[in-house]
């Protein structure tokens, strides 16, 4: 029997609530630290990369001594450290909301890591090149030579990368601006996700469902006309994850209709894996390493909601030789993860 989770654990598992709570705690800590921080520390926190006007001092104590002869190594180290820490703190909730908004379609862990690492690196580099035009052009040349070797699957991924870059830049030059970018961006993303803004959802209930199905049935037996009508009346209204599931089931129906067909190529996937959970993020983190290790190939098909907060993670998988669906199911059940309620493979 799965252990009952405490309220704090349930709050932490809820990415939206976790993000809101994180900002509240972060703002409270900043207000508390600011109250007791001396003037040199406030100056460093407001502008880690240093002032734009040459000759301005960093403040009193140890930083002032370094500033008298120009920004020395100690001051530069402090500046880079503050900029990088601020960038990490402010991109962490951006990464959380990226995970939240991409749960149904799926996401790559490398993109999540990139959002945080990119902001941290940009923050440190800005401290280095802020007052040196030559270094700035050198950095631009290096980036142009290396470029990104990773193709982003969704245009929204590029927006997240751009936001991480902006937060990293602002964290080094003006941390309050970085806080504003992170907070306002995440507020808008959370509102769009919660309201499902812009989505024309498929309606398959009541009279509308009957009308659409009846319109498609009228074209049955008329060759390609039925397929065209089915596409116009039903398929175009489905979400990407629903289309993936339908494509997989249609492939299975095709195999059942012509099991002895020699012309049909070997299918990419031969098993539908369904994992029931109350926490999709933690369950995916537990299940997918096992799939990488034990399967020829697999694809995340989407999330299907059920009652009482339970969701089903669906995977299209291709088994290795001498491996059966029951073997895969048993391997996942033996993990003993509290996030996995049940496993089906067929």
Care to describe what's here?
This protein is of the alpha+beta class. It folds into 3 domains: 7-195, no CATH class; 206-257, no CATH class; 271-345, ACT domain (Alpha-Beta Plaits). The chain has helices at 7-13, 15-36, 39-46, 61-68, 73-101, 109-129, 133-146, 155-173, 175-195, 206-217, 224-233, 240-257, 280-294, 325-333; strands at 271-277, 297-305, 311-318, 342-345. A 4-stranded antiparallel beta sheet has the order 2-3-1-4, with helices on both faces. Helix 5 packs antiparallel against helix 6 and helix 5 runs antiparallel to helix 8. The longest helix is centred in the first third of the chain and has 29 residues, at 73-101.
Q: Which helices and strands, and how do they pair?
A:
Elements: H1 7-13, H2 15-36, H3 39-46, H4 61-68, H5 73-101, H6 109-129, H7 133-146, H8 155-173, H9 175-195, H10 206-217, H11 224-233, H12 240-257, E1 271-277, H13 280-294, E2 297-305, E3 311-318, H14 325-333, E4 342-345
Antiparallel strand pairs: 1-3, 1-4, 2-3
